[in-house]
Design goal:
0% strand, single chain, 15 helices
């Protein structure tokens, strides 16, 4: 096969990629087409063919697949089980489009690592502030100490220990909505969804307003890297109050983490226009300025 054949195949691949919302069975055709392109690329390279421009064009479409790999993988698994399929055919790891499950795991791991780093920086700042404040204000209440200890245990993955300490805090502050909220989070992580929902409902009832519950839970989801769930809660908050600056700011932060830059800027602009809270307005405008310095607007959608 020739270079012209390769270019025709890349055009067909482009049509698949740019119309990626087609039925699930078409995903298999798209990935098989990508296999054929890769095999032809290797053959043409062995012949000494200059493929630089074609590789750049191909990478453009590959990038779209990587950005939408969650949807692609979901559609693929609706048609077949990728693991036995690739094992049976001995598909090499260089054909990364068959290993989207592993790429998704790596992406989540990187996101969690970023959050841990950011959380560490925030923790240092909070610790410094705490040291300063404890010189001029009384020690925190025992319930607050319990909550801080429980939060540390949760971050270390010691879920049962965290539950026990949070329950001690709850005994002291039964009307504090943040405690059942965190217990709901932990039970959700343990896969005990009925118990988690019971605690979430208790937190919702203790919240001064329903929107406060969704904003609070969405923020915790955001802080722990569970961006899909955080976005759902932010949107539920906006259904309750479309002019909630905090909810728009939270949604903008989620979009920014997901690299949905145009959407993030739109949310930050709404926060700026609402101008409900001076600090939130300043932060939104600062974030917009930082994003604009990165380059052209882009979105994953």
């Amino acid at each position: 096969m020739s270079l012209d054949d390769l270019r025709k195949m890349i055009e067909e691949y482009k049509d698949y990629v740019l119309n990626i919302n087609y039925p699930e069975q078409e995903i298999l055709k798209m990935l098989t087409s990508r296999d054929e392109i890769e095999n032809l690329l290797l053959n043409l390279e062995k012949r000494g063919t200059d493929l630089e421009a074609d590789k750049v064009r191909l990478e453009t479409f590959d990038t779209i697949i990587r950005k939408k790999m969650k949807m692609v993988y979901r559609k693929l698994t609706a048609s077949l089980n990728p693991l036995p399929y690739r094992e049976e055919r001995k598909i090499p790891r260089s054909h990364w489009w068959w290993y989207l499950d592993e790429l998704l795991k790596e992406k989540r791991a990187r996101a969690r690592k970023r959050w841990l780093v950011r959380g560490g920086i925030a923790a240092v700042a909070l610790l410094a502030a705490y040291i300063i404040l404890t010189k001029i204000v009384p020690q925190p209440k025992q319930s607050v100490i319990y909550q801080e200890k429980a939060r540390e245990l949760y971050q270390e993955g010691k879920l049962d220990e965290a539950i026990n300490v949070y329950k001690k805090a709850q005994d002291l502050e039964p009307d504090d909505s943040s405690i059942p909220l965190m217990l709901g989070m932990i039970y959700e992580d343990k896969g005990l969804l009925d118990r988690a929902n019971d605690y979430f409902e208790r937190a919702r009832l203790l919240s001064s307003q329903k929107i406060d519950f969704y904003n609070s839970r969405g923020m915790v989801y955001f802080q722990t890297g569970k961006l899909d769930k955080a976005a759902l809660d932010a949107k539920k908050s906006l259904e309750l109050d479309s002019n909630s600056a905090f909810s728009h700011f939270l949604l903008g932060s989620i979009y920014e983490m997901e690299n949905k830059i145009a959407e993030a800027i739109l949310e930050y602009q709404i926060v700026s226009d609402l101008d409900q809270d001076p600090q939130l307005t300043v932060m939104a405008r600062f974030k917009m300025g930082m994003i604009m310095q990165r380059g052209p607007l882009r979105s994953l959608e």
